[in-house]
Write a structure and sequence with these properties.
By secondary structure, this protein is mainly beta. Strands 2, 4, 5, 6, 9, 10 and 11 form a seven-stranded mixed beta sheet that branches. A hairpin with a 6-residue loop joins β5 and β6. It is globular.
């Protein structure tokens, strides 16, 4: 059975850090490129970061560059998002997503390119 389960969200002050984690079913993890998206209150869902199936290629939204880092752990079948220097604009529900049958080196940045989604984890950055 396919599953993606996020964890690690919470309330943090401006300038603080959080690490999100996404547990993925092994079958999905091994054949998927992975991504993190977020949906701020009252706004559309937007791409944050993606990592290729191989784990060797990453892509970030401009808003995340230099502050966020995506990674995947092949032993634990998890995808992490380390978020540093958090700002109020980072407040959102964060979603993990999987693009199955992915090319080894491709990173997918479009919502429509993903097949499976987690339920989301909420991040609130207070000023």
């Amino acid at each position: 059975q396919e599953y993606l389960v996020e964890s690690g969200g919470g309330l943090v002050q401006v300038g603080g850090s959080l690490r999100l984690s996404c547990a993925v079913s092994r079958r999905t993890f091994s054949r998927s490129g992975m991504g993190w998206f977020r949906q701020p209150p009252g706004k559309e869902r937007e791409f944050v970061a993606g990592v290729s199936r191989s784990g060797t290629v990453t892509t970030y939204a401009d808003s995340a560059k230099g502050r966020f880092a995506i990674s995947r752990d092949r032993v634990k079948n998890t995808v992490g998002l380390q978020m540093n220097d958090l700002k109020p604009d980072d407040t959102a529900v964060y979603y993990c997503a999987a693009r199955t049958n992915a090319n080894a080196l491709d990173v997918y940045a479009q919502f429509q390119e993903y097949d499976y989604w987690g339920q989301g984890t909420e991040v609130t950055v207070s000023s």
